[in-house]
Amino acid sequence: MTKIAIFASGAGSNAQKIIDHFRETASIKVSLILCNKPGAGVLQIAENEGIPSMIIDKEKFFRDDAYTDELKQAGIDFIILAGFLWKIPVALISAFPGKIVNIHPALLPQYGGKGMYGQFVHQAVIDHQEKESGITIHYVDDHYDHGDIIFQAKCPVLASDTADTLASRIHQLEHQHYPAVIEQLLQSKITYISRLRLSFGGQSLRQGYGGRSNTQYLIPNTFPVLTNSLQFLLLLAGSIEAPIYHTTAAFIPPVQC
């Protein structure tokens, strides 16, 4: 069984949708909820659902072991950020490489970074007169809203929109897609290869190395599973640029709502 920990800071609507989605799934379980705000709604959800919860102490989170010992003792395999507003420390990223994902309420790489959360994001999108917004599900690295993109879904921005009305539409996308994408990530056998270039017939599947690019999805759904042996052969042939690390993931094409 794959055990999930959810990190959240607020009411926990995404956490509830994730819990509901996996309630009858034998192979995946929400086993722990961590929150940095005493009294947040997500803690009541944890109590109602009978899921162990933990209040995060800021000093321990940023200057100690970032709760890696507690997560390991609980047997946690994968971490989901669901409205968690603190930057994830390197200690936690190192302990769970390629196993932490986040959802952002905009189409990264636009409208991301420090301070870009909640209503601030939606107001910025409206102020810049964007025609569309959406959600981005991505892996977490040591920069705000920067890790490799897994999935995006879009929705229109209406001329009459306020930050609240746009937020409502974005929440619908979050609730619709986040649990399903998590499930596909955890059940897929595609190997995740971070920040690399694959090229066949002179055409790179990822344009460039280690940063943002026009190609936002590392490996399409139709791409075959890469075994360690195949990766070794590709590396010898010069078709792969390292570094490489492995975990399980899926790469899902964007959708339009």
What descriptive keywords fit this protein?
single chain; 257 residues; alpha/beta; Rossmann fold; eight-stranded mixed beta sheet; two-stranded antiparallel sheet; 8 helices; 12 strands; 21% strand
Unreliable residue stretches: 193-254
Mean pLDDT: 80
Q: What is the strand tally?
A: 12
One letter per element, helices H and strands E, the order comes to EHEHEHHEHEHEEHEEEHEE
Query: What is the percent of helical residues?
Result: 25-40%
Could you give me the name of the CATH homologous superfamily? Formyl transferase, N-terminal domain
- Rounded to an integer, what's the Rg over CA atoms? 18 Å
Judged by helices, strands and strand pairing, the structural class is alpha/beta
Q: How many individual helices?
A: 8
Task: Output the CATH topology.
Answer: Rossmann fold
